[in-house]
Amino acid sequence: MCSPRQSSWGSVSRPPGSPQPRAVSWWQVTAAASLAYFLLGYNTTAVNVSIDDVSWGLALSEFQVSWFMSGYVLAVGMFTIAAGRIADTLGHPRVWVAGMLAFGASALATGLALDGWWAVVTRFLMGMSVALVAPAAVAIVSHSVAPERRGRALGLWAGISTFGLALGPVFGGLITEYLGWRWVFLVNVPLVLAGVGIMLRVRPGFETRAATRWDWPGFLLVAATPALLVAGFNQAVTGWLSAPVLILLFLGLLSAVLTAVVEWRTSAPLLDPRIFRIRSFSGGVTTGSFLYFVRIGLMFFLSLYMLQALGLSPVESGLLLLVWTGTTTLLSPLVGRLHERLAPGTLIYAGFLVLIAAVVLLLLTIDPADSWVTLLLPLALIGAGIALVYAPANAVAMSAMPDQEQALAGGMLSTFRQLGAAFGVAVLSSIFYGQRAANIDAGAVIAWQSGMRAVMLGCVVVLVLGLITALLQLRRPT
């Protein structure tokens, strides 16, 4: 609720005798803010089943297809932290509304694209818009919802967000087949207008801080570091020791080191390395990154497995993935309530253990000769494990930060999740394709099985690292 001396759109003094601001509906604020993450997930996965139609319709070259697919996520990772600082300065709801309108305009432009580079550029702008909205969305929920309901709100936020990843392949396939690929992007427009309408109606309050000198060196380095690292890991499918991979990864690591040095010495840094001294925050960020490494990377390869090895259609594969994402969505509100009663690390520990058990089960049982029915139990367990980790890790990280740093913290959370997802897809791709190629002489079934088992083993290693990180950094309530 806004304070008596605060207008519904910020910390502006009210005239004496003016009516008090009305209470903010926590669930309406949460639903509207969560729409940004719903659209992020939907637009990440829906294009996977529509890219052939996009490529044919716009006569995309292979180079343009690569940029069309990667530019969106890359833009999110490059600009989210800077967008968090902007939102902290100008106000979270204002930046959220502006970013959503920009997202709707760029989605409309993508749906109306007449040539390849038009689509590539507008798709990149969609990612930039999401980067502007995402940290403000987390901060709106954390700042506008009372502390006793914050865990519940973040659980609802996690559930709504998950639906985007779940419904993307299903709706993407249906829309592409019956309406055409352009509507995969045009459908964003009414959703954006609905979300903006809700946010303008509830008008959550916010606090701003005085504008500081813009950290241009930090901005350039923070943007360059994920771009170089993601490009290097994506290129690793051609071989880990190839010259382009080594050069890109070296430049990315050099950029990361320069970022730490420059930001440590800057009086008003865009990314303050000292923030990671807060154990609860760094623990929440790290566990979230490990989670997204597996969440996005494993979903990508299970989708390929369903489509290519099991022979399912895109719609059938999307419906099967609903066992995973639907479980996460259904359990997230309950997890939010439990988080309010338990120590922060408890649910996270349990979630990683459930995830490890689920992936080990896949590792031991996956076989292209079997029916899709064998995937039901592991998919449900993965969904449950993600629900147990996702919202609590976010709540732990955000609760450790002061109100004036909420959007910046949200930007870091989003950025490191995107990096975890990008690294997951890239690293697991190099593992899968290398292992499958090594066993191709044994037949397609054996090659697929060996490749998928290598992917599962890689996921188990990352999940164990996530559990160890949680045990070391999230041992006591914040």
**Which geometry do the CA atoms define?**
globular
The CATH superfamily title of the largest domain: MFS general substrate transporter like domains
In terms of structural class, how would the helical and strand content be classed? mainly alpha
Number of helices: 16
Series of secondary-structure elements, N-terminal to C-terminal: HHHHHHHHHHHHHHHH
Quantity of strands, as a count: 0
Which residues sit in consecutive blocks of at least 5 with pLDDT less than 50?
1-23
Just give the CATH class of the largest domain.
Answer: Mainly Alpha
Structure in words:
The chain is an all-alpha fold and 478 residues long. The chain folds into three domains: 22-204, Up-down Bundle (Growth Hormone, Chain: A), CATH 1.20.1250; 216-269; 274-478, Growth Hormone, Chain: A. It contains 16 helices and no strands. Helix 3 (62-90) packs antiparallel against helix 15 (406-438). The chain is globular, with a radius of gyration of 22 Å. It starts with 25 loop residues before the first helix and ends in a 5-residue tail after the last helix. Mean pLDDT is 79; it is low at 1-23.
